[in-house]
Amino acid sequence: MDLELEGKVAVVTGASKGIGLAVVHTLVGEGMRVVGGALTVDALDAIDGVTAVALDLVDPAGSARLVQEAVERHGGIDVLVNNVGGVKLRLGGFLEVSDDDFEASLQLNFFAALRATRATVEAMLGQGGGSIVNVASVNSIFHPDGFVIDYGAAKAALLNVAKALSQELGPKGIRINSISPGPVATDLWLGDHGVAATIAAATGTSAEAVRNEAIASMPTGRFTTPEEVATLVALLASPRTANVTGSNYIIDGGLIKTM
Fold first, then answer.
1. Second label for 243, Cα 20 to 30 Å away, from 31, 177, 179, 237?
2. Adjacent-strand bridge partners of 79
């Protein structure tokens, strides 16, 4: 299927690894010109069709600078993928999660996307429309998990704002949708300092046992791949889904049983 993305311009945040890097490869494969932003961009430098921008997206000026790079280099922006994010497990319980912890998680997982969206909408209004795709998380809607209480709150805020913006921006030709992955086979979950290793160290078990417990909760019996998430991103970015907005697509191997 031709997704009709050839020659269009995309901005991807958190583009240098994991889901973000898979999104970059997928969009370039569809013929898009991609401007990717991250703290370090070595992984992007060798990819044809990609402009790599090293910057801190938590910096209030960072997101706007990334969008401006796309506008100045390519004359506009057709797609924004808000992917940047991260989680720190709160194994000590709620009373050990400070205001500063919540603030840090909100800055990375919500405000960075909010600022990128604001800058992108301003550009898209002048060109007649575009598509915004947020990479959220099942933790925004999944049964309460105190280990990621601040992360889940930030991702829930992202979904809520996307739903509200879909109503305001739809008549102006701008679509905004979200994707909520469950466990994905990236370093965030499976790396040396990822979720599985962190829980294992705290509970006296092994990372393999934690991973296997997570797998057992998913009927498909495996983690989602970054490429599968990237495929959904490309589909939602495409004019082929031009009447889809305000939606949240869950990709979790059947983890959530009630929606």
1. 31
2. 10, 131
207-216 helix and 195-203 helix, angle to the nearest 10 degrees: 110
Strand partners, 10: 34, 79
10-residue mean pLDDT profile of the chain (259 residues): values are: 96 97 98 97 94 96 95 97 94 93 97 97 95 96 82 96 98 98 91 87 89 92 97 98 98 88
Residues whose CB is less than 8 angstroms from the CB of residue 152 and which lie 6 or more positions away in sequence, other chains included = 137, 139, 140, 142, 144, 145
From the list 110, 147, 151, 223, the catalytic residue is 151
> What value, to the nearest 5°, has the Cα angle with vertex 154 and ends 138 and 69?
105
Judge contact between 159 and 178, C-beta under 8 A: yes
249 is known as an active-site residue = no
pTM: 0.95
13 token code pair:
């945040």
